[in-house]
Design a protein that fits this description.
- By secondary structure, the protein is α/β, with parallel strands linked by helices.
- It is built from twelve helices and six strands.
- A six-stranded mixed beta sheet has the order 2-3-1-4-6-5, with helices on both faces.
């Protein structure tokens, strides 16, 4: 049966998968399509991109600069090692929540120092998940030197956020990208803060009220292979060419819990998210009640690689490659919209 034309636009899409699965390549592909094709075949408006990877990179940059000034790391166990505290996965979601709220409100931020603003935001996000201020014990003169070293790239990121916030969301779809997983060989459910279950629990009501999930399906083994393949020595700040260290790939991304979550959901082809929320009862008293979301999910099967070619210049793409990724995405989005 022919795939029907989809006219109602998706509001917010969580683009999720293991590292190097093809998330960023899919973003690049969708961003390059004509608006009519995105709307009619995928139900997407012009896409606006949010991603937690820049914050992962900035955390590494802060640690690197602190080390240059004789201070210890505050985010990671080392330059190619995992987080010191795994609840930083929650910090990243809180950063995305703030980006999302600013985007929906059309709120721009003026800051004398984009780097100092980032440091304050990271500390505030960490507090929300119960972590101490990362830079609280760093001497102020060192903090200022770290900020000076990072100002140019932090300003570039802030300028991007301000630009998309100022342009409005009419006719647009927000894409939020993240990767989550758990240790190689882990059993389910994954222990928080690993896995998608924990990260879904940290997303704001505003995100969950509007979100659908596009999940890119690869095996952990394929994720590790493609992670090594895409890495470039100068690519750590790039969404397309950064390489995740092997210890992190095995310890943090050795599996993921998406299939398990779909199997546990109360509705087919959804992920169930449930948590207590504050409300008023009939007497006007503050009480807590359980709120449930069933997030529709569409799966793009990339176990046999359909996306790596997108990292190449567009004039090197073949029609067969384009057809493979396009039809795979079309099927995933139709499944997502029918849920």
């Amino acid at each position: 049966m022919a795939l029907e034309v989809l006219m109602e636009l998706l509001d917010t899409v969580l683009l999720l998968a293991l590292p190097a699965s093809g998330k960023s390549e899919v973003r690049k592909y969708l961003d390059g399509l004509p608006a009519a094709a995105c709307r009619e075949e995928f139900g997407l408006g012009q896409t606006v991109q949010l991603d937690d990877y820049p914050y992962v990179h900035f955390m590494h940059r802060i640690d690197d600069e602190l080390r240059k000034h004789g201070c210890g790391y505050v985010f990671y166990k080392g330059p190619e090692r995992p987080f010191l505290d795994s609840f930083e996965w929650g910090t990243l979601i809180e950063m995305l929540n703030e980006d999302y709220a600013d985007l929906r409100a059309g709120r721009t931020v003026a800051a004398p120092s984009a780097a100092q603003l980032l440091f304050d935001r990271l500390d505030a996000a960490r507090a929300k998940v119960g972590l101490p201020e990362a830079l609280g014990d760093v001497p102020y003169r060192v903090r200022c030197r770290v900020a000076d070293a990072m100002e140019e790239e932090c300003r570039k990121e802030l300028d991007y956020r301000n630009r998309i916030c100022s342009e409005g969301l009419a006719g647009k779809t927000i894409i939020m990208e993240a990767a989550r997983g758990g240790p190689n060989g882990a059993t389910f459910p994954l222990t928080p803060p690993h896995g998608y279950a924990y990260s879904f629990s940290r997303f704001s009501d505003a995100v969950l009220d509007r979100a659908s999930i596009l999940y890119i399906w690869v095996s952990p083994e394929e994720s590790r292979r493609k992670n090594q393949e895409r890495g470039r020595p100068d690519g750590q700040s790039s969404i397309l060419h950064h390489c995740v260290p092997l210890e992190v790939m095995l310890g943090e991304y050795g599996c993921d819990d998406m299939d398990w979550l779909v199997a546990q959901s109360s509705r087919p082809d959804t992920v169930k998210v449930e948590r207590p929320v504050e409300a008023l009862n009939d007497a006007g008293e503050r009480v807590y009640k359980m709120k449930t979301w069933n997030l529709p999910i569409g799966r793009f099967d990339n176990r046999v690689d359909k996306t790596s070619f997108i990292r190449n210049p567009r004039d090197q793409w073949t029609q067969e490659q384009i057809r493979g990724v396009h039809e795979g995405l079309k099927t995933a989005f139709v499944a997502l919209r029918r849920t």
